[in-house]
Amino acid sequence: MIGMEKPVLAVLCGDDQARELAESPAVQGIESSAVVRYTGEAGLADALRDADVLFVYDFLSRAVPDAWHAANKLRWLHIASAGVDPVMFPGMRDSDVVLTNSRGVFDDSIAEYVLGVILTFAKDLHGSLDLQRESRWQHRESERIAGREVLVVGTGPIGRAIARMLTAVGMTVSGAGRRARENDPDFGTVHASAVLTDHLPAYDYVVAVAPLTGQTKGMFDSAAFAAMKRTARFVNVGRGELVVTADLVGALRAGELAGAALDVFDTEPLPPESPLWTMKNVLVSPHMSGDFTGWRDTLVEVFADNWSRWQTGAPLRNVVDKELGYVPSDR
């Protein structure tokens, strides 16, 4: 235990989430060793005063920067997601507060989603559903995915899980990351993201899973889409802000690429007036590619494990490099 008094834990969550958390055995274990303050966005500043730890369970919330002035004793912030951009602002970056995330929870489920949308495009499953609703028997031929070339932009754990799964079904996978290299165990060849457009013409599928940083924001713009094959499909399971949405819409309308599967958007929920909803060659899902049955319990378990480590002074897992904006990898 750190000190003689119980540490104070602030938990940012919605009302329904607070009820779920209170019923979690993992959280009940934490409550025996801490003063726990459940709070919504409106009460976050009050909850942060004299708090030692902040658990951002509501990982879509953008409330932390405005309440940061009240974090007078905070030593550690954990966010219940792999992406940390909601809490990556100058005050946090410049502070001594340790930042951890939930890296590893969603790797395989997102990889399954990516495989699913690739098969949907190749086998025209969405077209079959449309024809079924019309009671139309229309025979078509479909594409093979074996041997197709895939570029996974983002070489962290999620990108690696995607690479392994797509390789297992016979696709040829390369990566794009901060530095170019050969003989990577999951990607073989990794291209430098700084020269991404030089490599895009070679690929049938481009999968975006990079973290959102100053270098990656808007990396998929008109130049990137123009560089892709006209038969290529684009999949975004990273962050919506990786894409210049207007440029993507323009490229799809112009036939510069064959389709897109989008799970994340720069504005969420996706506005009803967005043209992406009604484009025949676009698959839209509501930021759910990683959300498997039981994922919320797993997120709490990840935090609870780190809480035990923090109390005993053991090294925390998933410590984010605040300059890079993600957990560094040894590969």
From TrEMBL:
<dbReference type="InterPro" id="IPR036291">
    <property type="entry name" value="NAD(P)-bd_dom_sf"/>
</dbReference>
<dbReference type="Pfam" id="PF00389">
    <property type="entry name" value="2-Hacid_dh"/>
</dbReference>
<dbReference type="InterPro" id="IPR029753">
    <property type="entry name" value="D-isomer_DH_CS"/>
</dbReference>
<protein>
    <submittedName>
        <fullName>Phosphoglycerate dehydrogenase-like enzyme</fullName>
    </submittedName>
</protein>
<feature type="domain" description="D-isomer specific 2-hydroxyacid dehydrogenase catalytic">
    <location>
        <begin position="42"/>
        <end position="290"/>
    </location>
</feature>
<keyword id="KW-0520">NAD</keyword>
<dbReference type="Pfam" id="PF02826">
    <property type="entry name" value="2-Hacid_dh_C"/>
</dbReference>
<comment type="similarity">
    <text>Belongs to the D-isomer specific 2-hydroxyacid dehydrogenase family.</text>
</comment>
<dbReference type="GO" id="GO:0016616">
    <property type="term" value="F:oxidoreductase activity, acting on the CH-OH group of donors, NAD or NADP as acceptor"/>
</dbReference>
<feature type="domain" description="D-isomer specific 2-hydroxyacid dehydrogenase NAD-binding">
    <location>
        <begin position="116"/>
        <end position="289"/>
    </location>
</feature>
<dbReference type="InterPro" id="IPR006139">
    <property type="entry name" value="D-isomer_2_OHA_DH_cat_dom"/>
</dbReference>
<dbReference type="InterPro" id="IPR006140">
    <property type="entry name" value="D-isomer_DH_NAD-bd"/>
</dbReference>
<dbReference type="GO" id="GO:0051287">
    <property type="term" value="F:NAD binding"/>
</dbReference>
<keyword id="KW-0560">Oxidoreductase</keyword>
